[in-house]
Amino acid sequence: MKVLVSQPLPEPSSTDLLSAFVVVIGRPDAWPEEARRHLPDADALVPTPREKVTGELLALAPHLKVVANCAVGTDNVDLEACRRRGIVVTNTPGVLTEATADLTWLLILAVARRFREGDALIRSGAWDGWKPMEMMGASLDGKTLGVFGPGRIGSAVARRASSFGMRVVTCDAADGPEAFERLLAESDVLTIHAPLTPATRGRFGEDELARMKPGAILVNTARGPIVDEAALASALASGRLGGAGLDVYEKEPAVHPGLLPLPNVVLLPHLGSATRETRLAMARTACDEAARVLRGEEPRHRVV
Ligand code: DGY
After folding, report:
1. Ligand 1 contact via 190 beta carbon (within 6 Å)
2. Which long-range contacts (CB under 8 A, 24 or more apart) does 164-172 make?
3. Averaged pLDDT for residues 256-267
C-alpha cells in the first residue's frame, strides 16, 4: 500500500511507523502537482496545514482510505468530500497544546513590552542609556485576558494567566452574542484559539475590532482567516488597538502589507507548534494514524 507524505517530516516518524508501506515524500513547493501524480494509486495521505486537500484532488484518489493531517486544525481538508467518500480524517490533538500556549504568551509579552522595538533600538546602535520614560509598555498584572475558544490550547493559555496576575474571561465560538460582547468589551489582551469554521471565519472584522477596549492587544495563534487583516491593520494604524501578535495569516503565507511597517505588531511564521519535541510528536501521531487505518484498526483521533 502507498502513502503520500506531502513534505518531509521530523524523523523517526514515516521511516519507522510507515515502514510496512511504500512511502512517497513530497516537496513543500510541489503541491498540488505531486498530489496529482501520486494520489491516483495512494491509499493514505499525510498532509500538513500548508497543503489544501480539495475535493478536486480527492476525486483523483479512488483508493484513498485516510487523510492523516499533521496538525490539529483540519481546515485545509475538504471534510465534507471525505465524509461523502468514506475517507477517514484524523488530526494530532494534545501534543501541541503546551508549545502553542507558550508561543501565545511569547506574543502577548513581546507586544505588551515592545520587544521588537527594544531589540531594534539596540541593534541600530542608537541606544544611549536608561531613561525613565523610554519605550514604556503595558503591565499585564491586574488586567484581563480574553480567550476566544477555550478548548485545549485556549485553556492552557488561560492557565498560564494566573502567573502574570491576569483575570480571565472566555468565550466559546458557539456562545451567544452576550458572551462575545463581554469578551470584546473587557479584554485588555484578547487571544484567539478557536478552530477555523464557517462560523469563525471573519469573526473579528471592522465592527468587532471597533468594539474592543481602546488600546487592547489582539493575539492570533489559531487560524488567520478568523481575523480581517485589513481591518486589523487600520485599527492598529489609527491607534484604536494597542498592538497585535500574529502567528497565522488570512492568506498565508502572504501578510497584509499594512501590518508590516507597524512597530506595535509582532509577526511570526506559524511557529505555534514549532519545538523539536512537538513537531516530532505531531509527525509520529499523523503517521501512526495513517498506519492504523491501513491496518484496518480504528484511529485514535478521528475527525471524520
Ligand atoms: C495545527 O496543528 O493546526 C497548527 O496550526 C500547526 O502548528
Report:
1. no
2. 164/105, 164/140, 165/140, 165/141, 166/140, 166/141, 166/142, 167/142, 167/143, 168/144, 169/144, 169/145, 170/146, 171/146, 171/147
3. 98
pLDDT band of residue 95 (cuts 50, 70, 90) is very high
Helix, strand, coil percentages for the chain (3-state, nearest 5): 35, 15, 50
Going from the Cα of 92 to the center of ligand 1, the distance in angstroms, rounded, reads: 9
Please, what is the average pLDDT of the chain? 98
CA 249 to centroid of ligand 1, rounded, Å: 13
Does ligand 1 have an atom closer than 6 angstroms to the CB of 273? yes
Residue 83: all three cell numbers together: 465524509
Query: Would the CB of 93 count as within 6 Å of ligand 1?
Result: no
Q: How many helices (H) and strands (E) does the chain have?
A: 11, 11
* CA distances to 168, 195, 201, 226 from 192, in Å: 13, 9, 12, 8
The predicted-structure confidence for 67-89, as pLDDT tens digits, reads as follows 999 999 999 999 999 999 999 99
> Does 49 sit in the ligand 1 pocket, CB within 6 Å?
yes
- Ligand 1 atom closest to 223 (CA): 5
Class of domain 97-267: alpha beta
Q: Note whether 2-95+276-294 and 97-267 share their fold.
A: yes
Residue 150 CA, ligand 1 centroid: distance in Å: 16
Q: Is the CB of 94 under 6 A from ligand 1?
A: no
Homologous superfamily in CATH for domain 2-95+276-294: NAD(P)-binding Rossmann-like Domain (3.40.50.720)
Kindly list the catalytic residues. 223, 252, 270
